[in-house]
């Protein structure tokens, strides 16, 4: 084998490999002999088919087979000889491959950069800590009980007030024309819940059973259904019933309906649930510090091909999201060129962080175990109640899908390791401080690990939010 260097710029490498014609011929003859032992041809005894006949019948297919195996073998040999670690599959182009002549092919690839694993023990992190208060526990339980409420019809002819429930039929029109999603029968509206279009519920306060009320509202400018956004609408609302809510008393008997033996055990579980959410938010903020710190402290070049693959995945997701009518408010008003430039930066950051985390993980012997994968599959299955077995079967039958879980698991293990080794200062904060701008933190975390997180402005039916929306 002869390796002829062509170019070496940055992480890009190009070289030609020449394999002597004699080596190719030896491989072809050896393979044809193997074929001759296996085939059965009329007029020839097994294993006695002449080479000339074998070449005539199987020569082309065998040469194709030999070409592929030879290229793979000699590329690997060249990479080993040059101590190169390819970032992606090399690009191979044939130069010459003719019978009786040397095989020559070109190899173009990008190599992985030398990544110096940082000393994670010197990383300083600020960890915000918030504790679940008694008031939050009481509110959480109150929300649980709220779902257990019942209603009963008000028999006297009093006017509706905030906190009451009205059972209504309504029809919405715009410029006198009914619109899709603006009609409902037997809808229950809790006055003061603010679940309908702004101004809708307020205009029903004071209504009585048997009355018809005309409600005039404007759909918000950012309303999900674009054909309704910003438009003035009128709803004819027939009030069928006035109802009041009946909230059950918090007792041990009620606690048992939630899976607890006593009110105290229910409160303990609620406190743990709230605290778990706060701890998860705290970790998210610490993880953001870890990734930001790694990104800021390392500016080594990354393979363009890897960035291209990452960017293409992001952009494909962007295009899919755009088709659904969802959008990210931060992207509004930007040109396609601006968006591509921004998301390419995100792609480059992702690749660089991936290489850094990989380096740290390998240096410290971190890996994804079978138990980690089993746990991840189980957690994924629990996200689809009633379909758990189908989800588990899917991963068991699709190794590639199972493999896709490894990267995020590995990332979390490395981040956990860094946090464990770093200099962490715990700082007690209020819940408001902990959760402030958490959406921005989650979006940035999404930018570094998956596809861009989109703030959904889903097209809801008009009837579901104002009856509409």
Task: Briefly say what this structure is.
The chain is of the alpha+beta class and 469 residues long.
Topology, pairings included?
Blueprint: E1 2-9, E2 12-19, H1 21-38, H2 51-82, E3 91-96, E4 103-110, E5 124-129, H3 134-146, E6 150-153, E7 165-174, E8 177-190, E9 212-218, E10 232-246, H4 252-257, H5 263-297, H6 304-323, H7 336-363, H8 370-382, H9 388-397, H10 399-404, H11 406-421, E11 423-428, H12 431-435, H13 438-449, H14 462-465
Parallel strand pairs: 5-11
Antiparallel strand pairs: 1-2, 2-4, 3-4, 6-10, 7-8, 7-10, 9-10
Helix pairs in contact: 1-2, 3-5, 5-11, 5-13, 6-7, 7-11, 8-9
Can you offer a commentary on this structure?
The protein is of the alpha+beta class and 469 residues long. It folds into three domains: 2-110, 2-Layer Sandwich (Alpha-Beta Plaits), CATH 3.30.70; 150-246, Chitinase A, domain 3 (Roll), CATH 3.10.50.40; 260-436, Trigger factor, C-terminal domain (Trigger factor, domain 2), CATH 1.10.3120.10. Helices cover 46% and strands 20% of the residues. The strands form three sheets. Strands 6, 7, 8, 9 and 10 form a five-stranded antiparallel beta sheet that branches. β1 and β2 form a beta hairpin. It is elongated. It starts with a strand and ends with a helix. The model is unreliable at 449-469 (pLDDT under 50).
- Helical content stands at 40-55%
CATH topology of the largest domain: Trigger factor, domain 2
Number of domains: 3
Determine and state the CATH class of the largest domain: Mainly Alpha
Question: End-to-end distance, in Å?
Answer: 70 Å
In the CATH hierarchy, what is the architecture of the largest domain at level 2?
Orthogonal Bundle
Radius of gyration: 33 Å
| Structural class estimated from helices and strands | alpha+beta
Overall form? elongated
């Amino acid at each position: 084998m002869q390796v002829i260097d062509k170019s070496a710029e940055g992480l890009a490498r190009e070289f030609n490999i020449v394999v002597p014609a004699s080596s190719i011929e030896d491989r072809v003859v050896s393979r044809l002999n193997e074929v001759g032992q296996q085939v059965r041809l009329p007029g020839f005894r097994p294993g006695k088919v002449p080479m000339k006949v074998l070449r005539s019948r199987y020569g082309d297919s065998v040469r194709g087979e030999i070409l592929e195996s030879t290229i793979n073998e000699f590329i690997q040999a060249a990479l080993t000889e040059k101590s190169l670690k390819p970032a992606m599959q090399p690009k191979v182009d044939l130069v010459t491959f003719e019978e009786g002549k040397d095989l020559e092919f070109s190899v173009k690839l990008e190599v992985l950069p030398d990544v110096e694993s940082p000393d994670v023990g010197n990383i300083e992190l600020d960890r915000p800590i918030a504790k679940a208060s008694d008031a939050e526990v009481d509110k959480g339980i109150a929300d649980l009980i709220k779902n257990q409420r019942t209603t009963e019809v008000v028999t006297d002819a009093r006017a509706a007030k905030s906190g009451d429930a009205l059972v209504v039929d309504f029809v919405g029109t715009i410029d006198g024309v009914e619109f899709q999603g603006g009609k409902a029968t037997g809808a229950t509206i809790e006055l003061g819940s603010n679940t309908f279009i702004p101004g809708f519920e307020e205009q029903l306060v004071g209504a009585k059973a048997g009355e018809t009320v005309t409600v005039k509202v404007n759909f918000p400018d950012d309303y999900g259904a674009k054909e309704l956004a910003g438009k003035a609408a009128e709803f004819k609302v027939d009030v069928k019933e006035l109802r009041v809510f009946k909230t059950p008393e918090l007792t041990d008997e009620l606690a048992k309906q939630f899976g607890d033996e006593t009110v105290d055990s229910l409160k303990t579980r609620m406190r743990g649930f709230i605290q778990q959410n706060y701890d998860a938010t705290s970790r998210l903020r610490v993880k953001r510090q870890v990734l930001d710190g790694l990104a800021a402290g390392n500016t080594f070049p990354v393979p363009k091909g890897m960035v291209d693959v990452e960017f293409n995945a992001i952009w494909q997701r962007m295009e899919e999201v755009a088709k659904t009518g969802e959008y990210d408010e931060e992207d509004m008003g930007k040109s396609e060129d601006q968006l591509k430039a921004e998301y390419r930066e995100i792609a480059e950051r992702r690749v660089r962080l991936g290489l850094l985390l990989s380096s740290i993980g390998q240096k410290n012997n971190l890996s994804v175990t079978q138990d980690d994968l089993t746990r991840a599959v189980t957690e994924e299955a629990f996200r689809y109640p009633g379909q758990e077995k189908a989800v588990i079967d899917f991963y068991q039958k699709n190794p590639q899908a199972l493999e896709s879980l490894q990267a995020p698991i590995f990332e979390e293990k490395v981040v956990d390791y860094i946090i464990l080794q770093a200099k962490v200062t715990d700082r007690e904060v209020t819940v408001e401080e902990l959760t402030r701008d958490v959406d921005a933190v989650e979006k940035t975390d999404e930018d570094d690990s998956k596809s861009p997180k989109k703030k959904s402005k889903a097209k809801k039916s008009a009837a579901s939010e104002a009856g509409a929306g």
